[in-house]
């Protein structure tokens, strides 16, 4: 599998989110035995509108 990473910023309810994924995974998704995902939520100490950068 090659590395073809894409990142998209989006709004999910009241939360800003960045979704990152390997686009080339679609080539092997049906046969890949991995069934685990990892997610993390970080609070920005001093976000500016709309929460994408710090002061």
Describe this structure in words.
- With about 55 residues, this protein is an all-beta fold.
- Helices cover about 0% and strands about 30% of the residues.
- A two-stranded antiparallel sheet has the order 1-2.
- It has strands at about 5-10, 15-20.
Q: Mean pLDDT across all residues, rounded? A: 78
Radius of gyration over C-alpha positions, nearest whole angstrom? 15 Å
Give the helix proportion (percent range): under 10%
What overall form do the CA principal axes indicate? elongated
What about the largest sheet? 2 strands, antiparallel
From the N-terminal CA to the C-terminal CA, the straight-line distance is: 39 Å
The count of DSSP E runs of length 2 or more, i.e. the number of strands, is 2
Low-confidence stretches: none
- Tell me the number of helical segments per DSSP (H or I, 4 or more residues long): 0
Strand content: 25-35%
Strand order of the largest sheet: 1-2
Task: Name the structural class.
Answer: mainly beta
What is the chain-wise order of helices and strands?
A: EE
Secondary-structure topology with pairs:
Blueprint: E1 5-12, E2 15-22
Antiparallel strand pairs: 1-2
State the gist of this model:
With 55 residues, the chain is an all-beta fold.
Keywords:
55 residues, mainly beta, two-stranded antiparallel sheet, elongated
């Amino acid at each position: 599998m090659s590395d073809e990473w894409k990142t998209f910023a989006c709004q999910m309810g009241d939360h800003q989110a960045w979704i990152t994924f390997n686009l080339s995974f679609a080539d092997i998704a049906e046969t890949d035995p991995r069934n685990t995902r990892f997610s993390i939520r970080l609070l920005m100490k001093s976000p500016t509108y709309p929460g994408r950068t710090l002061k």
